[in-house]
Amino acid sequence: MSLGEPLVELQAAPAGLDVPVREVAILDPEDPATAATGELVLAIGARGRAALPALRAAGRARAAAVAVKLDAPGQADALREAATEAGVALLSVRRETRWEHLDALARAIISGPDAPETAEHNAGDLFSLAQTTAVLTGGIVSIEDTSSRVLAYSRSADSDEVDDLRRLSILGWQGPEPYLSKLREWGVFQHLRSSDSVIAVEPHPELGLRRRLAIGIRAGAQPLGTIWVQEGSRPLAPQAEQALVGAARVAAAQLVRRRRELSADVRLTQTLLTGLLEGSTGPQSLATHLGLHPQRPATVLGYAAVGGDTARADVTGLISVHTAARHRSALLAPIDSRIYVLLPDLPAALPVATVRGWAQEVVDAARDHLGVQLRAAIGSTVPGLARVPESRAQADRILDAMGRGGVMPEVAALSDVQAEVLVSETLALLQERPELRDPRLAALTDYDARHGTRLAESVLAWLDALGEVRVAAQVLHIHPNTLRYRVRRAEQLTGIDLAQPQQRLLAMLQLRLPSA
């Protein structure tokens, strides 16, 4: 089984181990349990017996396998029985494993050595290279980028041979910081950045580390990553260092090619996506380039940082990963200070609450992991890609209203905040068009500024309380008689008759401006 330890464990394979996997599908817990022939279904959020509908649907569709996390060991029995009855393989996923990593790994393995020459093919090549290197060195291999993120690794038949660093790196898709700190302290990373030679890291049983060899992957003076070979229960092969030098050269060629292909493809995708969002490019080019259905529903999500620019690599990456885990065709484009996510090919009846939940996950993760406060706006669901600019425009309206202040949720669709958005847009119009304002109200705020009074504030509080003097006085922390005096004084100074509904309405709006 290519996924292998320590990510998954095979619980049942009623059709044997030779069932081909053609695609990976992510099943959201709020979506109907569906599958397609040959799919590996990742049952996200459906722990234990909650995955039974997914298993039955996968069996009916002749899917290849279902992967699920277990809450307790005893749950495996019921799921194995259901999987055997449905005729579909069952994989139990370790609780620490991140779904987006398992998804990326599975897709890379499926691409395999016979896949077309694409970026996904290069990822598959790296897994093949890791396995070949493991055979030549007699060790356990992982290939990482310059940030210690795991790109590919070899399979190990015996999980007892894997040390803590290897296990935690694969589970977290990145080397854990305490171990990385030790490697930095020992000068390992300095050597890998500056030398083409192999470095040996001696075993440290007290840290759970076995002996390993490492070599930097370089293109000239440019570091591209690292290959690590961990020694298992037997010593590494005598020619392990020589094999590692050759593997680093092959990996360098693959990573350089991968970067070039990804760079060109990403630039084209970004150009087409930005053009579609801005309405300057039609939908057909993007649909053809990515194989999207131009007539299926789509929605745009907009993200903006509170008091800052969201166009940062860490925020962009976080949004990308979380959204891709929920919708496989999601596309992301930073434009000015905002980040937009296009969700194409949506189910016809996808609830807004589901999309709101996805966006809330991103906002929560940005706050918890990056210390960044994000606002998220959900644009309208449109019937096809041609109307994506409408969805983006609606998301912008919501973000604009959020940016003007007031009490607003972190994540909202227009139906959640329609009144707030309309009032905000009306205030923006009054701000931009002085001729639409009542000069008597402007004179009232000028009077306050010159004399240090609070007449305008008092009138607005009284209006907001619908004329309830005691309620407004409590808000202002003044005596009701003081409030009555201020309202009368404001009417005397300006000549405004607050008994007139139209004047009350205009005052409620104009007095909310930063400077009326």
From TrEMBL:
Domain named CdaR GGDEF-like: residues: 285-400
Residue ranges occupied by any PucR C-terminal helix-turn-helix domain in the UniProt entry: 455-513
Pfam families referenced in this protein's UniProt entry, alphabetically: GGDEF_2, HTH_30
Gene3D superfamilies, sorted: PucR C-terminal helix-turn-helix domain (1.10.10.2840)
InterPro entries according to UniProt: CdaR-like_regulators (IPR051448), CdaR_GGDEF (IPR041522), PucR_C-HTH_dom (IPR025736), PucR_C-HTH_sf (IPR042070)
Similarity field: Belongs to the CdaR family.
Protein name as it appears in the record: PucR family transcriptional regulator
